[in-house]
From TrEMBL, chain A:
SUPFAM superfamilies: MetI-like. GO terms for biological process: transmembrane transport. It holds the Pfam family BPD_transp_1. Signal peptide: none annotated. This is Carbohydrate ABC transporter membrane protein 1 (CUT1 family). Coiled coil: none annotated. It is found in: Cell membrane. One of its GO terms (cellular component) is plasma membrane. InterPro entries: ABC_transporter_permease (IPR051393), MetI-like (IPR000515), MetI-like_sf (IPR035906).
UniProtKB/TrEMBL annotation, chain B:
InterPro entries: Bact_solute-bd_prot1, SBP. It comes from the Bacteria. Residues 1-20 form the signal peptide. This is Carbohydrate ABC transporter substrate-binding protein (CUT1 family). Keywords: Cell membrane, Lipoprotein, Membrane, Palmitate, Signal. PROSITE patterns: PROKAR_LIPOPROTEIN. It comes from Actinoplanes italicus.
């Protein structure tokens, strides 16, 4: 008599829990988990979408090893990440510190900083392309006006296209990570700052000894996110330069898209995807290990 | 629990699209075919074909299914793989024909092809090992559009069909200086951003040139011309055109350039835009595209140019009865009747032997003899010769295009690099 209601209640709780989880989980399984699982099979096959895939063992990976375009894409992906990660981290943290003050109109400035993140990437790319246009763009007009005789060709130059894309990528992403940092800043107890102040710490010392350690969980989370997103960068590059000029901004995601959806080599594209997955996975593991060691 | 499982199964089935297709196995009665098209609001040719067919075949209705123009092939390949593609679908160009044909996604329509007259252009491009897999209904060709008013203003003689690329380049420079002297900012020429604006002509006009050979030396003279015109300021540079998202319709239609090479599909667009006021009103004409040598110039010769045909293919997953109906539709689309209807909306049909009068009687169209000659006379080669290697090779040559015209790499070095890539990444497989 007494056990039944408890058991029933437990069962009900489980069911309610599942009912909240299920819609999202079903979508995740069908649209993400199953395709990702299949990816590991297709990477070892040759498949042009129509008909069955032919098992080719490690052929795709052997081909990758001598595929110069793959290596170019890999190098470019690292080039983008090495600059994009610290730059975005620094800019968004600086913005968060700046906008964490109680000043008039702070909500407005926070919105402004967040705006690029919610703007359509196509619009962003179009506007930045015009701003950076070598001949008539306002950026180069200004550069010429302040005395730079030979301003860069930005997206139309093989040497400057990657810096241009990194710049726009950072500008687009900074608002989102600023928001995460702002949330992190709220969790640092004000007493700690007061105590440091009483001890005679200057602002820089307070930043190093109070703010940064207090932000560590947030910084870790943000770093992991930016890292994964940098390695996966796709849309900014596709719409701004389409990988060009030549292959100067070709990155792995775009190479996967090209091989898969333009050339219908889905087996090979899957194999390259696995490499990208492995890179993101490895880097994230390293970050977790480092973070754990530091928190001990 | 059982009920929720059933609901989940239903949901999964609905999401994965496993609902059975309605059976159309009846032996007689009206039949409905679906036809793929893109940008239906601005591309009336699909409706024109469907309506024209209905008048001669009242029992067969052709319904249109819209696709995105820019991602047409990607979407179509996905739909075919999922078994959800329309009954009849368009081969937008030849770049992906190999994928469809080799993937067994096209019905053999040799019987339809056998009954067509010899005047249907582009048919042979769809033949693989003696069998035909699609029927062309339009065959555009690249020609030279020129603005008569700007030529007169600059004091440059109109094209007469005798131009090689050297004469074209000279005229572009003359036009630019002539117009500048008159205070007009328009440039002599506009070359659109596509790789084909240089590579299409190079492949078509150079004897022995072949994409599959992996030898791209034939591209050099064409890029020399393009670079020369960019450096001289007689045409907008590729970088300025891409960063400012220039459209060729505005460049020629708004009189920013005095001449431009472009496919014959632009005739309909230009007429339409001039009528609506989206383009300026000015007198224009078309001339044969500039040639590589004098041998193919002049109105007694046949100028060599290029463009892929646009054709119709049949989805093999449909019923026998539908295939028979679809074959009738394909035969109609390539017929002289359909050609007239297509010409009536400014489209260049595959059989263009008797439609020049229809096109040139449209309001605003040029009426000079050279324009008519240009429209009717040409040796049109394909942009994408059908081969397993075409799509990846074209992607390599796309990189070469931006590399050279951005000035990042000198022509010879870029060609060597593309040849190495072609050998290592594509042809060795």
């Amino acid at each position: 008599m007494t056990t039944m209601p408890v058991r029933r209640r437990r069962w009900r709780n489980t069911a309610v829990g599942w009912s909240f989880l299920l819609p999202n989980f079903a979508g995740f399984v069908i649209l993400t988990l199953v395709p990702v699982g299949l990816l590991f099979y297709y990477a070892f096959t040759e498949w042009d979408v129509f008909g069955g895939a032919t098992w080719t063992g490690l052929d795709n990976f052997r081909q990758m090893a001598r595929d110069t375009s793959f290596w170019t894409a890999l190098t470019n992906t690292f080039y983008y990440s090495v600059f994009h990660i610290p730059l975005t981290l620094g800019v968004s943290l600086a913005l968060a510190l700046l906008l964490n003050k109680k000043l008039r109109g702070v909500a407005f400035f926070r919105t402004v900083a967040f705006f690029p993140y919610i703007t359509s990437i196509v619009a962003i790319a179009q506007i930045w392309n015009m701003l950076l246009s070598p001949g008539f763009g306002p950026v180069n007009e200004v550069l010429r006006w302040i005395g730079v005789d030979n301003p860069p060709g930005w997206t139309t130059s093989a040497d400057w296209s990657m810096p241009a894309v990194i710049l726009v990528g950072t500008w687009r992403d900074m608002g989102y990570y600023m928001l995460l940092f702002l949330a992190g800043l709220q969790t640092i107890p004000a007493q700690l700052h007061e105590a440091a102040l009483v001890d005679g710490a200057n602002p820089w010392q307070r930043f190093l000894a109070v703010t940064l350690p207090g932000l560590r969980p947030t910084t870790f989370f943000v770093t992991v996110l930016i890292t994964i997103n940098s390695f996966k960068v796709f849309d900014v590059i596709l719409v701004m330069t389409d990988g060009g000029p030549g292959q100067s901004t070709l990155v792995l995601s775009q190479y996967i898209f090209q091989k898969g959806f333009e050339e219908n080599q889905f087996g090979y594209a899957s194999a390259v995807s696995i490499v990208l997955f492995a890179i993101c996975f490895l880097v994230t593991i390293i970050q977790f290990v480092v973070n754990k060691r530091r928190s001990e | 629990m059982k009920r929720s499982l059933a609901a989940l199964t239903a949901l999964l089935l609905a999401v994965s699209g496993c609902s059975g297709d309605p059976d159309d196995s009846e032996e007689s009665g009206p039949i409905t075919l679906t036809l793929a098209g893109w940008s239906l609001a601005t591309t009336p040719e699909f409706k024109t074909l469907a309506d024209g067919f209905k008048t001669s075949h009242p029992d067969i209705t052709v319904e249109l299914k819209e696709y995105d123009a820019a991602n047409y092939d990607t979407q179509m390949i996905a739909d075919l793989a999922a078994g959800k593609a329309p009954d009849v679908y368009v081969q937008k160009n030849l770049k992906n024909f190999y994928t469809y044909q080799n993937g067994k996604q096209l019905v053999d329509v040799s019987d339809v092809a056998g009954k067509l007259g010899p005047k249907v252009g582009g048919l042979s491009f769809y033949q693989v090992e003696g069998k035909t897999y699609a029927i062309p209904y339009r065959q555009d060709s690249w020609v030279l559009y020129y603005n008569k008013a700007l030529f007169d203003k600059a004091g440059v003689k109109h094209p007469d069909g005798s131009w090689t690329w050297a004469e074209y380049a000279a005229a572009a420079k003359q036009l630019t200086t002539g117009l500048k002297a008159k205070g007009d900012k328009a440039l002599g020429a506009y070359q659109h951003t596509w790789q084909s604006t240089s590579q299409g002509f190079a492949l078509a006009q150079t004897a022995g040139a072949s994409l599959e050979s992996g030898n791209f030396a034939y591209l050099k003279p064409y890029y020399e011309t393009a670079l020369d015109l960019q450096t001289a300021g007689a045409q907008v540079s590729l970088g300025d055109a891409t960063t400012n998202s220039l459209t060729y319709q505005a460049q020629f239609g708004k009189q920013q350039a005095a001449m431009m090479t472009m496919g014959t599909w632009y005739i309909a667009t230009l007429l339409n835009q001039q009528a609506k006021g989206d383009a300026d009103t000015f007198e224009w004409g078309i001339a044969p595209a500039p040639q590589q040598t004098k041998a193919t110039t002049g109105t007694s010769a046949t100028p060599v140019t290029w463009a892929d045909p646009t054709g119709l293919g049949i989805n093999p997953k449909i019923s026998e009865r539908k295939i028979a109906a679809a074959k009738e539709f394909l035969a109609y689309a390539a017929s002289a009747d359909a050609a007239k209807s297509l010409a009536g909306i400014g489209v260049t049909p595959a059989d263009n032997s008797s439609v020049a009068d229809t096109i040139f009687s449209l309001k605003g169209a040029p009426s000079d003899d050279l324009s008519k000659f240009t429209f009717a006379t040409h040796d049109t080669k394909p942009e994408n010769p059908v081969s397993k290697y075409t799509a990846p090779l074209q992607n390599i040559l796309k990189d070469l295009h931006t590399e050279i015209l951005s000035g990042a790499t000198p022509i010879d070095a870029a060609i060597t690099k593309a040849q190495d890539r072609a050998k290592n990444e594509v042809l060795s497989k």
